[in-house]
Design brief:
Helix content: 40-55%
CATH topology of one domain: TIM Barrel
Distance between the termini: 7 Å
CATH class of one domain: Alpha Beta
Radius of gyration: 19 Å
Order of helices and strands: EHEHEEHEHHEEEHEHEHHEHEH
């Protein structure tokens, strides 16, 4: 069982420069605390995510950390030029001496894809781009002829540090999406209540057992949770409740403007999120016990902690990290 961090890097209300500085300070704390990896979301035109050029922020993460692995969750490849994606992946992996984890996907928001001129063909375009990227990461020259992109004998000077390329990750919304994930030997993450997550984890394990990778090390199957830990449950709730509601407002921002139903199922209120287990809030002992229950029920081997969201002050997130390090994560060490 390992613990990572998922970060929307959503607007907190601070000046942008200060929020970036604070987040890098927090990332350093993740590194010291022993988290496995830091996963950064990519969003565009919304307060839900100001890490819109994830490779830029992750280059700074690389320089501020020593053992923490990191990567996008995900690169929204339907809006990427594949050659540029190949080069950015190689550079980040080399800069970090092989600590990059690469999340890939088409992007969850058609509104954001539309900003880049991508429409209903986003999945088809993603499939082409990921095919080119995976080919390019193991080739000296790129040759490809497709619907959206064609390359003829393009030299590739850059190589990943990790061979054949960094570990791949994929976000799962529906259980049947585990099929392409297994086919490409990807780690996965998902959201939802534990019993819903279990449907996906069981399906993934079954598909993996029947795949050509069955004898290889088993990937990470992860789920994410908002977590706030304090000395008392009352204090934790005091900070978590308004922060969750600010995060929720950012989550819905574009969807409300465009009057489109959001395809992501997160509770609207903090009380709902807490009662359903999306938000795990309280003292270290409370959080540890709730995590033990959810991890067993969901059947995951990786937990992505959302420790900074909404308008949580840096000091509150740092306190949660300290409690995770001293009182929570050691209980899950094997």
């Amino acid at each position: 069982m390992k613990f990572g961090v998922f970060d929307h890097l959503d607007r907190s209300g601070l000046e942008l420069a200060q929020q970036f500085r604070d987040r890098l300070t927090l990332v350093e704390a993740y590194d010291r605390a022993g988290f496995y990896a830091y996963h950064l979301a990519e969003h565009h035109g919304t307060p839900l995510g100001i890490g819109s050029a994830p490779s830029v922020f992750l280059a700074a993460v690389s320089e501020r950390t020593e053992t923490l692995r990191f990567g996008p969750m995900v690169y929204t490849l339907s809006i990427y030029h594949p050659l540029r994606a190949i080069e950015e992946i190689c550079m980040l992996d080399q800069l970090s001496s092989g600590r990059l984890e690469v999340g890939v996907g088409r992007g969850v928001s058609p509104i954001e894809m539309g900003f880049y001129g991508v429409g209903d063909d986003s999945r088809e375009k993603y499939e082409e781009v990921i095919s080119i990227v995976l080919q390019g990461l193991v080739s000296e020259r790129l040759n490809y002829s497709g619907k959206y992109f064609s390359f003829k004998d393009v030299p590739l000077e850059l190589r990943p540090y990790q061979r054949p390329y960094p570990p791949l990750w994929y976000g799962i919304g529906q259980p049947d999406r585990v099929i392409p994930a297994v086919a490409n030997k990807m780690n996965i993450i998902t959201n939802g209540v534990a019993k819903v997550v279990r449907v996906t984890t069981d399906r993934f394990k079954a598909e993996w057992a029947e795949s050509k990778f069955a004898q290889e090390p088993f990937p990470f199957i992860g789920m994410s949770r908002h977590i706030v830990i304090a000395r008392t449950e009352k204090e934790a709730i005091k900070w978590a409740a308004p922060a969750y509601e600010k995060w929720w407002t950012s989550l819905l921002h574009l969807w409300r403007i465009h009057n489109i139903e959001i395809p992501v199922s997160f509770p609207e209120t903090f009380d709902q999120a807490k009662s359903e287990g999306h938000c795990i809030v309280g003292t270290a002992s409370i959080v540890r016990e709730l995590l033990e229950q959810q991890i067993e029920e969901a059947g995951v081997n990786y937990l992505l902690c959302r420790l900074a969201f909404g308008d949580l002050p840096l000091s509150v997130s740092m306190q949660s990290v300290a409690f995770m390090q001293s009182d929570v994560m050691p209980a899950f060490s094997v």
